Amino acid sequence: MVEVSGHLLRGPVFLAGETLQCEINFHHPGLLSAESGDGNSGNKIRLAWASVQIICQCTVSESRVILPRGPLPSTVDVSTTGCDTSFVPNKGERGLTVLSTKPKILFCDLSLQPRQTKTFRYEDCIPTDSPPSYRGQAVKYSYKIIIGTQRFQQPTKLLRIPFRVLVLYGLNDLSVYNEGEEVAPSNPFLRPKQKENAVLDIATQVMATVTARKSPHSYNITNSHGRVAKLLLFKQAFKLGDDIVGVFEFKEGNVPCVQYSVTLQSEEQISEECRHKLGQGSAITSFVKHQEMCLHVDETHMAIPIPLTASPGFITDIVCLRWRLHFEFVTLSDPGKKSDVVNKIGDDFTSWRGPANINVETMVWDLPIKIFPANPLHVSGVTLIKSGASMKV
């Protein structure tokens, strides 16, 4: 028996374009029992080969999505009996393989003595045009590192390590962001110095720039009776983990607002050529909701946190994910009617007694916003994905 384990050195979250590093260990735990039927001379164990590859599987809801390439391959299709000794990374996986990197061979014909461990380092770059990790109502994109190995005269076994990929569009050509650097004389006998993680450094700067607070945006909220409120939103582009902060001003409105609510929602829209039905609508998912009573309130604010576990906006050939703020305002349907009772208590105090019944109407408004990825090191701290896995061969 050989224990095979893999561990992602930096955590389970990466940006598309980064280099993924995984440490893979092959350990012989000790003496094998006589009943194991190993067949090797002594207690030495021989492994025929080991290979590593990154794949991305796309799984769709067949009641909502039709892929133009044909039906999705089932588990039986990719796990045929003729592949028992071959490296088939999507063996046993459901869905369609939309990304598959070139497999890298770790070794051929490896011998392990009892209590011996061999360690290998696997590195590969995640393509910048990869789809992001996403778990929606109709579409799911999932990434895994597949480690395949085989003992002599035994079938291949696969070790799967899941991880998450965030996509920041515009990082295809990093030379655009390096134009301001001084050009140093080149030496043909020296390897060019490269930053340890240039992609992450540049992506962090880009995300900080596009989500920086600029001039506030002002919105006048009105209905058929007049002006309800004024909303000040300090920015419309955010990162995962940011707080969406806004201020409501009701003092200048002539339509009393009894209550308002703001909900952070994602909109999952399937492309027209992949829709199961022509009139199929978008799938709405609500995340965080802020609700407040605001009758006789001059000014109030909202603060809605964006979960780090959410998926930033993206678009692929199959699905498009957008974000929005969904507002609901409950206003008086007859603003001119005085149904409340105000009693004066002395010169400085008054008591107010609200009406038992009031006639209200609800108005809704959707405000599109943009949500970008966050630093993958921060996202790794809250993810539930484990950065390692192990199996026995």
TrEMBL record:
What is one Pfam family matched by this protein? Rgp1
Q: By its UniProt entry, which PANTHER family does this protein fall under?
A: REDUCED GROWTH PHENOTYPE 1 RGP1, YEAST -RELATED (PTHR12507)
Q: What is this protein called?
A: RAB6A-GEF complex partner protein 2
**What is the scientific name of the source organism?**
Lottia gigantea
